[in-house]
């Protein structure tokens, strides 16, 4: 088996068995391509399964050093190391090679970025008015596409979903007025969670589906202009176009609506464990990043209001 064949097999497993997001599979594919390309020069030949089995920790450190010398940042190198770890563990388990001592390899230390949330007013505006970017003179189905985007972004802010989670929903999953108490979402690693759905979210989705008479349960909930499942890039462009039209900050993205959901819940007194469950975070430490956002907001309020803040 060549290194390229092993890479293709791993990526297929990642997508099919682990149900990793398409963006994750694509990024890991690039990272492993960089790694295999480095090994070709480092080892003097295209690496095959035997060469991969004979790798040492020093070879991986040499790759990370080469990436650093080429200007790759700490976050990029940490992601690439994670991709390589997963790849080599997959080969050890499925191809009979001896596992490499990966525990001895330390990646670059990362300072987790503080999530950038929108204000409540900005998030509500983005969700409610994003449909304005669909020009009736240019869009194929402007009313339906506008209602679709409003429903999608209202869902992201109202339920804290990742955009991939929202776009994977089918019509049968749609939370409609009078329906069940929650929405079952399949997140990273195929883990499922139940999230409550606000009446405003249910109504936005109902308004959108009213413009799709005859929609069957197995169809994607959010459709693109050509009738296929909506592409994340198209949804991201809609919000990007609207934020420029409305003068919203550059970090007004679909994922910022998820950050806003968590930040506003925390600011309203929600329990951190409950927010962890709603977001589908495997570790509480991931959710704890939002306490930094809330603390920053409190400090800004204090500076504005306290008479001795200056």
Key descriptive features of the protein:
single chain, 310 residues, mainly alpha, DNA polymerase, domain 1, 2 domains, two-stranded antiparallel sheet, 57% helix
How many domains, in number, for the residues? 2
CATH topology assignment of the largest domain: hpI Integrase, Chain A
Rounded mean pLDDT is 86
Shape: elongated
Termini gap: 67 Å
The CATH superfamily of the largest domain appears as: Intergrase catalytic core
H/E order of the elements? HHHHHHHHEEHHHHHH
Helix content: 55-70%
Describe the strand arrangement of the main beta sheet, using strand numbers: 1-2
DSSP summary: helix tally:
14
Low-confidence stretches: none
Q: What is the C-alpha radius of gyration, as a whole number of Å?
A: 23 Å
Largest sheet: 2 strands, antiparallel
Residue share in β-strands: under 5%
CATH class of the largest domain: Mainly Alpha
Structural category is mainly alpha
**How many β-strands, per DSSP?**
2
CATH architectural category of the largest domain: Orthogonal Bundle
GO cellular component, one term: cytoplasm
Domain Tyr recombinase: 113-303
Subunit structure: Forms a cyclic heterotetrameric complex composed of two molecules of XerC and two molecules of XerD.
Domain Core-binding (CB): 1-92
């Amino acid at each position: 088996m060549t290194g390229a064949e092993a890479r293709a097999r791993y990526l297929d497993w990642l997508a099919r068995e682990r149900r990793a997001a398409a963006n994750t599979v694509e990024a890991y594919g690039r990272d492993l391509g960089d790694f295999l390309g480095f090994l070709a020069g480092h080892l003097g030949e295209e690496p095959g399964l035997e060469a991969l089995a004979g790798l040492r920790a020093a070879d991986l450190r040499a790759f990370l050093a080469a990436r650093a010398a080429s200007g790759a940042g700490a976050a990029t190198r940490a992601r690439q190391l994670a991709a390589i770890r997963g790849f080599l563990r997959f080969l050890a388990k499925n191809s009979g090679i001896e596992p490499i001592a990966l525990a001895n390899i330390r990646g670059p230390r990362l300072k987790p970025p503080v999530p950038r949330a929108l204000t409540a007013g900005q998030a509500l505006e983005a969700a409610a008015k994003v449909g304005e970017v669909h020009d009736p003179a240019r869009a194929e189905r402007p009313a339906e596409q506008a209602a679709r985007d409003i429903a999608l972004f209202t869902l992201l802010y109202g339920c804290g979903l990742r955009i991939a989670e929202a776009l994977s929903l089918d019509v049968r999953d749609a939370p409609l007025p009078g329906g069940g108490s929650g929405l079952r979402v399949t997140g990273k690693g195929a883990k499922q969670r139940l999230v409550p759905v606000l009446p405003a979210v249910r109504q936005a989705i109902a308004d959108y589906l009213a413009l799709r008479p005859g929609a069957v349960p197995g169809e994607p909930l959010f459709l693109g202009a050509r009738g296929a499942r909506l592409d994340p890039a198209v949804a991201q462009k809609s919000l990007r176009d609207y934020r420029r039209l409305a003068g919203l900050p550059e970090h007004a993205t679909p994922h910022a609506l998820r950050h806003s959901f968590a930040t506003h819940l925390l600011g309203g007194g929600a329990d951190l464990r409950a927010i962890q469950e709603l977001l589908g975070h495997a570790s509480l430490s991931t959710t704890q990043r939002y306490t930094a956002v809330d603390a920053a907001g409190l400090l800004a309020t204090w500076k504005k209001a306290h008479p001795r803040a200056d």
